[in-house]
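Sequence of DUF3147 family protein (Runella salmonicolor).
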Amino acid sequence: MNTLYFKLAMMPMVIGMITLVSRKWGNKIGGIIGSMPWVAGPILVFFIVEQGTAFGIRAIPGILTGVVSLVGFCYCYAFLSKYLTWLPTLFISYGAFVAAALLLDSLHLSLWSIYGVAVLSIVAALRYFPLPVAGTPPLERAKTPKFDIPFRMLVATLFVLAITALAKGLGPTWSGILTPFPIITSILAIFTHYLQGSNATITILRGIMIGLVGFTTFLFLQAFFLREFSIPISFLLAFVVNGLINAVAIRVW
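Predicted 3D structure, token representation.
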């Protein structure tokens, strides 16, 4: 019951914080902040607390598979946002996520292999990521939806509750694959697309992509740290590495 209360309290705060950061410091910074393990990290903790450390460690290759699928989602959404409204763009991008997940799951890659594939896919996607259309005036809706932030909070919280509740039945692999499912990313993309247009959407998704190298490494390190350290120490060490990688990535990209 304590973990349930924690899920209900934590997720609204996380999504609310990311939304406010994006509004204050811009879409790129909001995307980078949004890419950090605010959802995947706690879900991994819940796996460990509720299913055991071994389950959590076995879920990590699946989570990395989900990261590659998330790259496919971000690239697809950024590209299609130039031509389509948010709803068809969202569903086609979800299809890209599922297709990538099914393909990679069929390959049964090792932890090191899927980590390498994840990093290479992020770097390649950033190299060829869609660019905002020059000369296009920014779209500014007259009014932000009244229940914007509460709706974002609700969706993210329900997702975490669903994944952790289904974990035992799904098993570590597919529980892991669904952990990086683009919930926060979708929320950021949809509202940015609707309120500000394609150029702003591309910017925020590129920010998320920049942060994914650190995010991926954070998760990869848990496969080793959790064998040696407690959850708080494992997460703190990997979070520091995540932050350092993000600082470098911002300068590179």
